[in-house]
């Protein structure tokens, strides 16, 4: 995870990619109804603060934002306007270790949790369960988690082949599938943001995300929402 210490501000390029605006539209639709008055929000893997700033623009609430990289937290902090800086509490942490990110270290403090490209930073099924357990540890009994992961699919071999053919082989970001994870949960991959910036991650099977969520303590409804692509004028074929 600390690969981000070396990537640093180069990661800001992600905000310029077309897919990010598509993703942002879906995240906005999922999160805004959850931002009730007095709701307490925690963001996992805030990175350079792309989504931190977006969430701040959707509400007058405050946010606790964590990340494993002190470099990323520094960039995120500096990117905030003076008026927004008082509304964010940045915390250094490892999402695979069950920790309370509440100001008072209490359990179940937050009403809403968000993790944009957080769950893809473990190559072990046990690590994914640990991440969900950390999220559940921080959420109230009726709290909601919204996450962003690589394209939810069960046949990742087919997905691997798709990235070697048009149109995916011409688009950014581009996934390079390096090695199948031994336990059959998914693939180790390299995400190329452009020709110069890339990072290692894992693409787990859709069923693995769902099973890990249950094992990590989530008992409510699980829902995938790819239909937001249609709202932007694209057909999800």
TL;DR?
The chain is α/β, with parallel strands linked by helices and 237 residues long. It has nine helices and eight strands.
Q: Can you describe what's shown?
A:
Residues 228-237 have low confidence and may be disordered. This protein has a domain at 3-152 and 208-217: Rossmann fold (3-Layer(aba) Sandwich), CATH 3.40.50.150. By secondary structure, it is of the alpha/beta class. A hairpin with a 5-residue loop joins strand 7 (186-192) and strand 8 (198-204). The chain has a five-stranded parallel β-sheet. The longest helix has 14 residues, at 18-31. The protein contains nine helices and eight strands.
Number of strands: 8
Spatial shape? globular
Q: Report the structural category.
A: alpha/beta
What is the helix fraction of residues, given as a range? 25-40%
Main β-sheet, spatial strand arrangement? 3-2-1-4-5
pLDDT < 50 runs, ≥5 residues: 228-237
- Along the chain, the helix and strand elements come as HHEHEHHEEHEHEEEHH
Say what the CATH topology of the domain at 3-152 and 208-217 is. Rossmann fold
What amount of the residues lies in strands?
Answer: 15-25%
Pfam families: Methyltransf_25
GO biological process, one term: methylation
Protein name: Methyltransferase domain-containing protein
Domain Methyltransferase: 41-143
Topology (SSEs and partners):
Blueprint lengths: L2 H5 L10 H14 L9 E4 L5 H9 L4 E5 L2 H10 L2 H4 L2 E5 L17 E7 L8 H14 E10 L7 H7 L11 E7 L5 E7 L5 E7 L1 H10 L12 H4 L6
Parallel strand pairs: 1-2, 1-4, 2-3, 4-5
Antiparallel strand pairs: 6-7, 7-8
């Amino acid at each position: 995870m600390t690969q981000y210490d070396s990537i640093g501000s180069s990661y800001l390029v992600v905000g310029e990619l077309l897919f990010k605006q598509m993703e942002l539209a879906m995240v906005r639709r999922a999160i805004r109804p959850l931002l009730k008055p007095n709701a307490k929000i925690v963001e996992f893997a805030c990175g350079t603060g792309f989504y931190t700033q977006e969430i701040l623009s959707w509400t007058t609430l405050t946010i606790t934002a964590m990340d494993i990289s002190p470099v990323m937290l520094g960039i995120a902090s500096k990117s905030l306007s003076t008026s927004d800086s008082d509304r964010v509490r940045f915390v250094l942490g490892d999402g695979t270790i069950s920790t309370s990110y509440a100001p008072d270290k209490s359990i179940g403090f937050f009403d809403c949790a968000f993790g944009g490209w957080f769950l893809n930073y473990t190559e072990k099924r046990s690590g994914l369960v640990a991440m969900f357990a950390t999220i559940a540890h921080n959420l109230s009994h009726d709290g909601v988690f919204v996450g962003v992961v690589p394209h939810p699919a069960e046949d990742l071999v087919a997905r691997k082949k798709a990235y070697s053919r048009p149109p995916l082989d011409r688009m950014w970001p581009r996934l390079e599938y390096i090695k199948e994870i031994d336990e059959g949960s998914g693939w180790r991959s390299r995400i190329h943001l452009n020709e110069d910036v890339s990072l290692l991650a894992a693409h787990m099977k859709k069923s693995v995300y769902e099973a890990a969520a249950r094992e990590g303590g989530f008992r409510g409804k699980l829902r995938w929402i790819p239909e937001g692509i249609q709202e932007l004028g694209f057909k999800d074929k």
